[in-house]
Amino acid sequence: MSLWGNFALGFTYLSPLVGVYSLFAVALTTGGPPSIWWIVIVACGQLLVSLVFGEVVSQYPIHGGVYPWARRLWGRRYAWMAAWVYIWAMVVTITAVAEFGTGFFASLFNIELTPALTLLIALGFLLLALGINFTGTAWLARIARLGLFAELIGVIGVGLYLLIFQRKNDFGVFFDSMGVQGDGSYVPAFFAAAIAGLFLFYGFEACGDVAEEVSNPARRIPRAMQLTILVGGVSALFSFAGYVLAAPNLQQIVNGEVEDPIPAILESTLGAVGAKIFLVVALLAFISCVLSLQAAASRLIFSFARDGMLPGHRWLSKVSPTSKVPNNALVVACTIPALFCLLIFLNENLLVPITSFAILGIYVAFQMVVLAALRQRFKGWRPAGPFSLGRFGFAANIVALAYGIFAFVILATPGSSGSFFEDYVVHLGLGVVVIVGLIYLFAVRPDSKSDAPEGDAIRVATEIRERTGQVAVSRR
User: pTM for this one?
Assistant: First the structure.
């Protein structure tokens, strides 16, 4: 992969179009138009996280992302738990994107969605992505670039058009809650709408998941991750703002009276033909997003299995001799989301809580890497890859960790539906994943079966500096 192919992979995984469309209605009914500011808040926080990741991947440009980073910064057991949580969060994210994409498909062909049809379309997305991923990295990069163009047209192009030519509301609405808080304080409503930004800004780490398939990865992957955040943030702002300002019935949307507002906004502003064209573009973005997610998840599973850390690791770590991709890991990255789609078919109210679990799991895994990096800094680690923050690295690492804790608190706040299972499904899901992971870790001891290097960040940084002439080699 080139820099642009790698950036396209991360961008289509992050997918501002998918993020904005999927949770636009939820954000407005929960926090009103001011929920747009979560895009800015989360983008700033995740940019700091991407800078920390950039220093790590620049020193360790190897497959798997979160797993090898945590292993080299801390140890095998710590990395095992980080990767275990991350794998489940990723497969649930694949489920959520496939499910949210069914609305585009139905709107494009004027089909009334039923639970059974939703299941079939979601499974179709998963199988289509699997088929493309089987062909190899070259086609993955091509489709990711196509998805990138679809994203940019769909979010920046349409967003600017709506802002300039179809504006029906004033910019002041972004400071108007429009009554979502009822008679109480607006603060709880605003924090409840944070999911709009938190769901949007992950995926940039996928640039590092395929590190061994990228040309000059130590330099290009950090740049690709930062570009993903910056371009994704600007795109999401244009898109979200365009829909809000062009909505002819904004108060009805905020009141929850419009179930799927974006197609209605598009048809009223672009006309029936324009709306259909946009839906085709959006559908390409959703397919590309599922494709990138599936590819990233399979590389993590492969990296994990290659070190003997998973049941069936020999089977999971096999690489196709023709396409050079981990086909068996791809099958797993398709099958588990398909099972979750079946679970949502049985109870459609689980989609939003399951999405919240995916976000929380991703943030847990991310912050385990951020914490491990900070621990190494306290022990004297100075990143030695081509990308380095220098003296600002320590401060960026601390603020990135503080941001992560802030996100945890928001994500862990229980719902208020009155149903214990639906309100606490995020906690229950994370609890089950962590407990099962700990039982397997201490009962089977997969870490003892691996001889992969661990906790060597300081030693490797010293060796890199010696080899590149940054420090004099000690003489004995």
Answer: 0.85
